[in-house]
Every structure is written in C-alpha cells, then in structure tokens.
C-alpha cells in the first residue's frame, strides 16, 4: 500500500504544481445582497434569491424542498445578505448547453471559505482521493486506501460473480461506499475541515466499479454482447449514494464507453492530452486489467484485456502488493551474477511487487541468467532475489520457472493489445510519438526494465511519460474546471472500442510476444544492442 499511496501523494504534488486552476468548478459560492421586500415589492423569498443568483451565473437555478423551508428564516436572520453555495449539473449526453445549477447551501454573508470538492479514483485495488479548494483551485490533501472489496475478490470477474445475488451486490456496494468514506475522513482531517464542507464530487472508475457503487446489476457486463446497465450515470446527491459529504453535494460519475472502457480510461485520455495532439500516441494503464488507448486529435481507439495480475504480484508465488517489505528494485551484476535489491521502507523482504518482478526479469535477461524464451540457465531452477537468511519469512524470495513464464505471458498479452491496436489502424510502433504510462504501477516501474522485457515500446526515453494516477488527475480536472467535463464527454463520443475476444490478430501478436522482449528484436533496437554484449 505504501508505494501505491506514495504514487498518489507524488501525483498530488504534481497536480498542485500544474493545475492551480480558477476556472468554473462544479461548485461555487456567491455573496448575495438582496433588496428588502416591501413598498409594493412582494416577490417571493425563494424567487428573489433565485433571480439574483441567476443574474450572476447565467443559468437556471433549482432549489431543493428542504432549502425552500429554510430560506425565509435565513434571509431575515442575515439581513438579506447571504452566501449561497451551488452545484452545477446537466442531463447526461446533453453537455453544457443544458447547464443547470442547484442550490446546495444558504449561509451567512461572512461564509467565504471554499467551496470544497473531492475527486475520487475508484480503482479495483486502490481508492484514491484528492481534496480541492474550489475557490482558489488549490489541492489541499490527497490519500489512498485499499479497496475494501478486495476481501471478496481480487479481480473484477470474481466480484461480478459475487454480485449475482442481491445480498452479494449489496455487500459489494457497501464496501465501495466504505472505502470512499474512509478517504473522505482522511483528507478532511488533513485539511482541517469537516466532510459536510465538501459540496461537489467527481468519481472516476471502470464500468464495473461504478455499477457496484450504485448497486446496479453487473451480470451482463461480462456476457456477450457485454451490455452494461448505463454508460453515463450522471449526477447524484451524495446522500443518495451514501457518501459522507454535504448531503446535497452533487456527485458526478464520469461516463464510460462500454463494459470494458470506463470513465477511468477517459479520464486518462483527458489527463494526457493525447486527444488534442497531431502525433499518434499510445496510453497504457496496466493494473488488474490492461487498457490501451491509441490515437490523436482525429481518432481514438481503445482495447482492454486481462494483462495485469502478474505485474501486481498476483500470480507469482512470492508476489505481493507494493507494501512495506516488498522488493521494489533489483540489480544484477552481469559479470558476477550478484543480486542486490531494495525493499519498500528498507525493511526485511516479505515478497516482491510488480516493479521488482519486472526489474528482476530485465536484469536476469541482460546478465544471461534467463534467455529470450524465459528459460533459466542450467542448472538453475529459480532466480533467487533474496536469500532465505535475509528475508523476513525465513524463506527465499525467488522467481521460479513457472513464475517467469506467467510473467512472460502477461507481458505478451499487454504487447499483443498494443500491436493489435496499431495494426487495426494501419500503424506500427515506428509511428508512435509518445507513450503514456498510466496508473500507480506505471508510475513506479523502471522504464528501462519495462522496455527490456518488451512491456513498453522502445521509444526515445523523453517520449515515455509517466502520468501517475491519470484517473484521479482526470477526475480532478473535471471537478475544478467545468469545461473539462464537456471535453471528457466529447472524448467519450469519439472513442472506438476494439474487441479483443476471439481476435485472430491478437492471438498472432500474443504468440509473437512470448519472447523477451519479442521475437522481432528489430522492434526493440536498444535492447537488441544490449543483448549482443
């Protein structure tokens, strides 16, 4: 968890430097000084407030019933000088031309703090949250927690099966809500505010995670023809979802494209800016699943597949998440074969996480300990990273021949998704200008190691860009700038989904990828040069 959390905090620092925005956030505050009624001026209290507010913001304002009950007393208590908090929303699919504001709170005229908003990356493994002061456009706090749903299943398919009963679906929904509420508690304490001060939220997640959060049936997501209940859920009051924000805070769930192309991928596209570039770029988010986006300002094609479990330590015998005690970096002296390593927080090794696995394989390949087919040099039966006497468990931390082959197949699957996408639009790896590595895993993976094993394309290193938690970044952009919400919905209409199931091209590329880095070494010229020595 430490390394994933570190990724959230590092990304938060980057966002704080790059996105000090004062645009039009999803929630705003306005000071209203209203005329006293009387002398023939008998406009209703709520209408008086609404007209003054609509004149300032330029769009219709709706007022919930509970606030209608409070307005008369609050106006008179504060001598008709009040601060109102609004949240913006629009009907799904209509965009900002149908923008409406809803009154969230009416307070004294001296209430000028905030408003505050929360952006959430609802990941299947980790949930990240970013607390923003929407008045100043500054990031106040960020944190991450393990998704509580993992106790019922590490992967999405397991959770879909668990959600097949009403009881299972309700349990998964409550665990998702609990995870977000835990984030809310952490970030509000860091910022010294209370959860009810947050008057807007944006949640980014894959299609299944959003369905589970809303308690929607998920069975058809994984069945042909793969149809979700909804792609654009839109806005919900926080109280309706069960989130510990202001009960009338409007929470926007980012739209998805289909069962396997969720709002988290669209948020990544938005964060990268690839949809505005002339050059062709590839974005890869390799987590529990692998999602890839190829395109530029004229077109976008996306595909998804199961590519990530081995990279998260999920199918490696000594694998573990990026937590204290996980081996996260490995170096092997090519002359002596001596292995050195580093663990998260520099404590005794308990296992090895994804970045350590990729490092170990890349270093072993260059040292000749394994060959391009992923076979160990005889008489070795495993690659020992940490001897038993140095580990916290008393057992060696090692990669077996089976582990290496699993990693090779995972790498081949990710490589095949990329190659199939490129082939589908008549491009090759040589046509790529930029490669964006998204997700907490991509933020910590050594770029040279990823290229060495063939997981990343062999591009100029300055053109390989770590996005960090692009899902959280995209959600934050939408939260802090309403125009980015429009941009994201336009992206959703432009994306074409390429189905990988039963694709002959995918299987052909998968087979070709069952070598480190690839059967065609000319695709990886810098690795080819190193392997010759």
From TrEMBL:
Domain of life: Bacteria
RACo-like middle region domain mapped to chain residues: 116-277
Cited Gene3D superfamilies: 3.10.20.880, Domain of unknown function (DUF4445)
Name of the protein described by the UniProt record: Na(+)-translocating NADH-quinone reductase subunit F
Residue ranges of every copy of the RACo linker region domain listed in the record: 21-108
Organism name: Neomoorella humiferrea
InterPro entries in the cross-refs: Corrinoid_activation_enz (IPR052911), Raco-like_middle (IPR041414), Raco-like_middle_sf (IPR042259), RACo_C (IPR027980), RACo_linker (IPR040506)
Domain RACo C-terminal: 279-528
Pfam annotation, one family: RACo_linker
């Amino acid at each position: 968890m430490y390394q994933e959390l570190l990724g959230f905090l590092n990304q938060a620092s980057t966002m704080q430097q790059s996105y000090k925005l004062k645009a039009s956030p999803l929630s705003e505050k306005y000071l209203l000084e209203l005329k006293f009624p009387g002398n023939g001026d008998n406009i209703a209290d709520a209408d008086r407030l609404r007209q003054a507010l609509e004149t300032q913001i330029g769009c219709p304002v709706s007022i919930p019933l509970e606030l209608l009950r409070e307005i008369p007393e609050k106006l008179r208590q504060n001598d008709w000088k009040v601060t109102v908090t609004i949240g913006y929303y629009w009907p799904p699919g209509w965009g900002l031309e149908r923008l409406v504001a809803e009154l969230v709170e009416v307070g004294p005229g001296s209430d000028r703090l905030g408003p505050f908003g929360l952006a959430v990356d609802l990941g299947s493994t980790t949930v990240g949250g970013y607390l923003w002061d929407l008045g100043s456009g500054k990031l106040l706090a960020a944190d991450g927690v393990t998704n509580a749903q993992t106790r019922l299943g590490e992967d999405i398919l397991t959770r879909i099966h668990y959600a097949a009963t009403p009881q299972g679906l309700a349990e998964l929904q409550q665990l998702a809500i609990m995870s977000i509420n835990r984030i809310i508690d952490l970030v509000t304490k860091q910022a010294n505010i209370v959860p009810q001060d947050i008057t807007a939220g944006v949640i980014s997640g894959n299609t299944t995670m959003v369905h589970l959060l809303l308690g929607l049936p998920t069975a058809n997501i994984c069945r042909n023809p793969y149809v979700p209940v909804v792609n654009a859920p839109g806005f919900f009051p926080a109280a309706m979802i069960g989130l510990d924000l202001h009960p009338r805070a409007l929470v926007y769930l980012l739209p998805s494209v289909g069962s396997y192309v969720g709002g988290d991928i669209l948020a990544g596209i938005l964060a990268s800016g690839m949809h505005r570039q002339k050059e062709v770029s590839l974005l890869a988010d390799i987590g529990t699943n692998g999602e890839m986006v190829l395109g530029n300002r004229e077109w976008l094609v996306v595909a998804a597949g199961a590519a990530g479990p081995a990279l998260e330590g999920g199918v490696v015998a000594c694998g573990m998440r990026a937590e204290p005690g996980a081996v996260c970096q490995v170096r092997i002296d090519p002359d002596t074969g001596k292995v050195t390593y580093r663990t998260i927080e520099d404590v005794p090794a308990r296992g090895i996480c994804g970045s350590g696995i990729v490092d170990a394989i890349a270093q072993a390949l260059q040292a000749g300990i394994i060959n391009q087919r992923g076979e160990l040099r005889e008489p070795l039966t495993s690659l020992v990273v940490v001897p038993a006497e140095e580990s916290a468990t008393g057992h060696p931390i090692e990669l077996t021949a089976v582990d290496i082959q699993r990693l090779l197949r995972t790498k081949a699957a990710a490589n095949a998704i990329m190659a199939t996408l490129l082939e589908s639009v008549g491009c090759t790896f040589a046509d790529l200008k930029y490669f964006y590595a998204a997700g907490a895993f991509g933020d910590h993976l050594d770029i040279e190691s990823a290229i060495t094993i063939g997981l990343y394309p062999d591009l100029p290193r300055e053109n390989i860009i770590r996005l960090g938690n692009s899902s959280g970044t995209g959600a934050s952009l939408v939260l802090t700038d309403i125009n980015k919400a429009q941009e994201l919905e336009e992206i959703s209409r432009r994306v074409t989904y390429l189905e990988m199931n039963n694709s002959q091209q995918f299987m052909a590329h998968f087979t070709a990828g069952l070598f480190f880095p690839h059967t065609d070494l000319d695709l990886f010229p810098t690795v080819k040069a190193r392997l010759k020595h």
